[in-house]
Amino acid sequence: MPTITRRLTLRASLALVALALPLAGFAPLATAQTGTSRIVVGFPPGGSADVIARLLADTLRETGLGTVMVDNKPGAAGRLAINAVRTAKPDGQTLLLVPSGPMVIFPHVFKKLDYDPVKDFAPVSLLARFNFGVVSGPATGAGTIAELMAKARAKPDTATYGTPGQGTAPHFLGVMLEQAMGVPFLHVPFQGGAPANTALVGGHVGYKIDVVSESAELHRQGKVKVIAVTGPERDPQVPEVPTLKEQGVPLEITAWFALYAPAGTPPEVLGRIEKATQAAVRSPALREKLQKLGYQPVGSTGTELAAAQKADLARWERPIKTTGVQLD
Q1: Looking at the whole model, is its pTM more than 0.70?
Q2: What 8-state DSSP symbol labels residue 129?
Q3: Which residues form a coiled coil (predicted)?
């Protein structure tokens, strides 16, 4: 649970209860969509994608889309939901909320992908971006990227980094960092972010790369140290931590959540959904909620989402091929 010199993506694991958000200052669209729309999410209730979907659905009701429900279809790393929307009637009643990974990473990782992330979907809006963090543990004690590089060159066996798993965005981010910094890095995959945190705190790996929100509280407690964030600006969750670029590493990487409709949805319908989505994401209430969850609200046009997706598809190709990772 998925954007620049180089950008990546991946999940942000947050278990929060979705709240209804009253929207002030936006009149319903002149042509409201009738009936019940659904936002399909490929992950279980309570995860980050589900929380964002429910917050968005509540707000969309106020911006002209009528009743909007969230339909959770977990499984196959989000691909069950993706295919449910791919084969849905293109009438604007079925939408997909998805992290960037399945749309820009999976095409390079899976030998056979049962959907085309460009041809099978109509982009509606890039909803929000989020950062990754490079985190140092007690095994190394590095406090900056410069110290990480020095320690990695002096003792390569300490330059191990944990991630939520092989083939994830943090895995490939480690490859990109290795290339950008010119230092050796050894990837140690775990079954999710929590086990990777445990290994980092216990000194079993030197570093961890993951979504900032996964390590922010441990950072505040002094158990680990977030030494860099990957976005173009500092992350409000750890505002004292400089970006990679501030520390001389020419790399900017963010992940995102976006909204899509099935390919073939009529332009006038897409336009109505896009306008309602932009109004929702840019509303003060929803912006505040997203920011508290560690996301930077965007609310782009469909054209801007298509451009971001195209750029990230191209940027991911080289680091993924470098690893040789291929999944069935």
Answers
A1: yes
A2: E
A3: none
